[in-house]
């Protein structure tokens, strides 16, 4: 997958311009939505195991907080850039608004390949990120969470660092924490489970059923859990891929066996049925769940699916999106399809504020209601404007953000 993040922010702004024209967005609001409210770049010194100090570059982009505190993950990846965090922070703003959470949007990242660090170095980097940025974070200011290559353990170190600096408990400053530190039941599977609830609504709209065939690109936290949940629900998962390869089986893969093989460090290709590309297979539903820009104008032509559920953030470039719309392929956009993660992050904050905790069943029931309602509200906008599901969802989200901004300024 080609990873070209240099233009991520211009992609995000192109989408905003399209929705501005569709809904007649107020010019003053539009001007304010062209840049994050605050973008912080920090140099984080980390003492490496060999005694030398290495400096890592980190960012926090706080895009909009008209509806509530900034909210969004922290990514540890070599491809992190200013453009990427800005784009992801804009998408977080639309995402929290799509599912009607009282939150804004932000995103952070560090340019690092965490696989090259020891556990001690990773802990010092995580704590260093908070030391550098604690003064722009807080439970009522900006609440980070995990993203690509950041984990509950990293959230625990970050929470501990923040609480040491401010001198009191503040579990609501970060979500995706381990259960022992105030994490929410259900958080680990929430992105994928939210995706399943949305998928179940979407397939009904285009006449597919629960034994439809599915191809999934990316088998990490989002994609791997999605594969597991869909197989359990009766869907036929015919193809999966990861960064090292892809496999296909027309009758459906044995998903638990595939995931167990991967968990042991095995390669997908060792399971037989190796193919070049999971995007190109015969499947009713395609789920990109890896990184951005995996579907471009160059490879969109190979797709045979009737619908695409964007579990990854920004997997389809705007150009490819137009080609898919022209072919009448239903694309359920990222800001709706993967909003289950931030929804349960919000539930985590609520539980932290009450210091009272829900069961996994309570969390999942609330998630189902929220995701189902949000899908139907976005679908109604798509119908109202006679447009794509992406633009319908954006109309819903940007409209909500604009309403809050105007209410503050009137
Ligand atoms: P992850 O690091 O756990 O998994 C990423 C997966 O993608 C890995 O299996 C990796 O092998 C695979 N991959 C990388 N390059 C690939 C390629 N060229 N072809 C096929 N597969 C490839 O990350 P994640 O948390 O699962 O996140 C994946 C996407 O979902 C990201 O866009 C992320 O922003 C988004 N997302 C995740 C969450 C969450 O809660 N985890 C929430 C919302 C959005």
Word description of this protein:
The chain has 410 residues and is α/β, with parallel strands linked by helices. The protein has helices at 8-23, 27-32, 82-98, 119-133, 152-166, 190-205, 221-232, 255-263, 318-326, 334-337, 340-354, 360-385, 389-409, and strands at residues 38-47, 53-64, 70-77, 105-111, 142-146, 213-217, 236-242, 245-248, 274-275, 285-288, 307-309, 330-332. The chain has 2 domains: 35-174, Rossmann fold (3-Layer(aba) Sandwich); 190-337, NAD(P)-binding Rossmann-like Domain (Rossmann fold, 3-Layer(aba) Sandwich). 44% of the residues lie in helices and 17% in strands. Strands 9-8-7-6-10-11-12 form a 7-stranded mixed sheet, sandwiched between helices. β3 (70-77), α3 (82-98) and β4 (105-111) form a beta-alpha-beta unit. The model is unreliable at 1-6 (pLDDT under 50).
Taken together, the total number of domains comes to 2
- Count of helix runs: 13
Average pLDDT confidence is 96
Provide the helix percentage. Answer: 40-55%
Q: Report the span from N to C terminus.
A: 46 Å
Q: Tell me about the largest β-sheet.
A: 7 strands, mixed
Order of helices and strands: HHEEEHEHEHHEHEEHEEEHEHHHH
Uncertain regions: pLDDT < 50 for 5+ in a row? 1-6
């Amino acid at each position: 997958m080609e990873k070209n993040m240099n233009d991520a922010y211009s992609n995000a702004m192109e989408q905003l311009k399209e929705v501005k024209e569709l809904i007649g967005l107020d010019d003053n609001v539009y001007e304010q939505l062209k840049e994050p409210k605050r973008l912080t770049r920090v140099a984080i010194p980390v003492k490496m195991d060999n005694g030398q100090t290495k400096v890592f570059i980190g960012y926090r982009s706080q895009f909009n907080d008209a509806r509530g505190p900034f909210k969004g993950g922290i990514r540890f990846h070599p491809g992190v850039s200013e453009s990427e965090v800005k784009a992801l922070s804009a998408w977080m703003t639309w995402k929290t608004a799509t599912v009607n959470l009282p939150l804004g949007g932000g995103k952070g990242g560090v340019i690092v390949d965490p696989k090259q660090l020891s556990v001690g170095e990773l802990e010092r980097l995580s704590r260093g990120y908070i030391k550098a940025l604690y003064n722009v974070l807080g439970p009522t200011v900006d609440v980070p969470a995990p993203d690509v290559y950041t984990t509950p353990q990293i959230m625990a170190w970050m929470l501990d660092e923040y609480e040491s600096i401010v001198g009191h408990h503040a579990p609501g400053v970060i979500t995706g924490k381990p259960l022992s530190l105030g994490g929410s039941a259900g958080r680990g599977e929430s992105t994928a489970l939210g995706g399943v609830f949305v998928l179940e609504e979407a397939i009904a709209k285009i006449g597919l059923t629960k034994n439809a065939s599915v191809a999934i690109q990316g088998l990490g936290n989002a994609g791997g859990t999605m594969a597991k949940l869909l197989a359990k629900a009766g869907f036929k998962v015919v193809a999966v891929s990861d960064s090292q390869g892809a496999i296909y089986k027309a009758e459906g893969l044995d998903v638990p066996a595939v995931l167990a093989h991967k968990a042991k460090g095995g390669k997908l290709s060792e399971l037989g049925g190796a193919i070049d590309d999971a995007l190109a297979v015969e499947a009713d539903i395609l789920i990109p769940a890896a990184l951005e820009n995996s579907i471009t104008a160059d490879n969109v032509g190979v797709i045979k699916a009737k619908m695409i559920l964007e579990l990854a953030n920004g997997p389809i470039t705007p150009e490819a999106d137009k080609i898919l719309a022209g072919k009448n392929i239903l694309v359920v956009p990222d800001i709706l399809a993967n909003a289950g993660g931030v929804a349960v992050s919000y539930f985590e904050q609520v539980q932290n504020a009450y210091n009272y905790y829900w069961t996994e069943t309570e969390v999942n029931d609330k998630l189902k209601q929220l995701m189902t309602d949000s899908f139907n509200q976005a679908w109604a906008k798509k119908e109202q404007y006679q447009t794509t599901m992406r633009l319908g969802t954006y109309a819903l989200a940007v409209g909500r953000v604009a309403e809050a901004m105007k209410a503050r300024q009137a």
